[in-house]
Amino acid sequence: MTAIVDPGVVAAVAEAHRREWAFVLAATVRVTGDIDLGEECVQDAYARALSAWASTGVPANPGAWLTTVARRRALDLKRRDATARRAAPLLVDDDPVPGPDDQLGDRPDISDDRLRLVFTCCHPALSPDARVALTLRLMCGLTTGEVARAFLVPESTMAARISRAKKKITAARIPYRVPDLAELPARVGAVLDVVHLLFTTGHSAPIGEDLVRRDLVERALDLTRMLRNLLPGDADVAGLLALILLTDARRDARTGDDGRLLLLADQDRARWDRAAITEGAALVREALRRRPPGRFALMAAIAAVHDQAPRYADTDWNEIVALYDLLVQLWPSPVVALNRAAAFGLAHGPSAGLAALDALAEEPQLAGYAYLPAARADFLSRLGHTDQARMAYTEALLLTENAVERDFLTDRLAQLDP
């Protein structure tokens, strides 16, 4: 007979998983020196919490309770299998390992442990795909199946990819530590790249029935807030947090009650999250104090111009184009150039925008990017070039796999019919 677990306890364990997973795993891996063994011990601690908390109640500090149980389990397993563990390659850790009872009192300061884990996940020796996969798996606690769905690959493929990345960490003796001050700027950039990609994937899901993958957006926001707490003086961290807050502030207004996509011009700005906009705007000002400003600060400044316009008609497109001009110089990405071209057309008219977009037609990285033909179709429609607009919308539809975006493009295509 299956025992019935109190729903309140289940909810508490789920919340502890969302909030404390990285905290617990980072401290446990510090003891094990082995990522797989650390994961095994942490998963066991969460399983034990379901029964223990049902009997004793949810502890005041769930993270400390889970960390204590996971680390004690790790020490037991290491003692039981000491010979095999001595023969296995372990993570390089330059600092002394904390004792087993460090987690019994109030939540300790283990910021270095979480930093160790995130910098290990995002080490430049790993491929970009492996960095994102490991960050989702280890820092966010997603299952291998969930990571696979985020990458749109079979679960077996993702399992092999994560396994190879873990083996490379140990075989290459990638250090489980925070980089030295001389290395830190470059290494922080790799971490922020991963978190930014995680956010953009959630903000406009590449496939599926929903426009937004809320789980990925919230994971990215949680990670960035954690980095902000750990690196409060880093302007790039402040810029990325500002970008996420200012962009995600519009989430609830991006679709109507019928689930249809709404562009900025059609959104109800009363539904925007004003608290997030206020927080994001303050972070933008902080990030822009650095000279020259970083790319996340510039992208956040663009988002702030949108968010602070009382109406769509009040949007300062010239300022947005000027910010994109700076961003293109700092980060010469085809996608940035595309966004700049779209903004240029809104500032100077559809003919100018169409010319700017057509100049990007030969960019190989944009060949399968649906937003290029979609932007062309919009400008062509405004100019009255209906047949060409119809062809561009059809091309965009062929490249789009998100259901909400497909419905939007289908509606726009239908509006072109006589």
Provide a descriptive summary of the structure in words.
With 418 residues, the chain is mostly helical. Among the domains are: 90 residues, Rna Polymerase Sigma Factor, Chain: A (Orthogonal Bundle); 78 residues, Alpha Horseshoe (Serine Threonine Protein Phosphatase 5, Tetratricopeptide repeat), CATH 1.25.40. It is 66% helix and 1% strand. It is built from 19 helices and two strands. The chain has a two-stranded parallel sheet. The radius of gyration is 24 Å and the shape is elongated. The relative contact order is 0.06. About 3% of the residues have low confidence.
SSE inventory with pairings:
Blueprint: H1 7-32, H2 35-56, H3 62-80, H4 82-87, H5 111-121, H6 128-139, H7 144-151, H8 155-171, H9 184-203, E1 207-208, H10 214-230, H11 235-248, H12 274-288, H13 295-307, H14 317-330, H15 334-348, H16 350-358, H17 371-382, H18 386-398, E2 401-402, H19 403-415
Parallel strand pairs: 1-2
CATH topology title of the domain at 1-90: Rna Polymerase Sigma Factor, Chain: A
Q: State mean pLDDT (0 to 100 scale).
A: 86
Q: Helix/strand/pairing class, anyone? A: mainly alpha
Radius of gyration: 24 Å
User: Low-confidence stretches at least 5 residues in length (pLDDT < 50)?
Assistant: 100-110
- DSSP strand (E) fraction? under 5%
- Please report the distance between the alpha carbons of the first and last residues: 66 Å
Supply the CATH architecture of the domain at 1-90. Answer: Orthogonal Bundle
Give the overall silhouette: elongated
Which CATH C-level class of the domain at 1-90 is it?
A: Mainly Alpha
Largest sheet: 2 strands, parallel
CATH H-level homologous superfamily name of the domain at 1-90: RNA polymerase sigma factor, region 2, helix turn helix motif
Biggest sheet strand order reads 1-2
Number of E strands = 2
The succession of helices and strands, N to C, reads HHHHHHHHHEHHHHHHHHHEH
| Share of helix, binned | 55-70%
SS element count, helices: 19
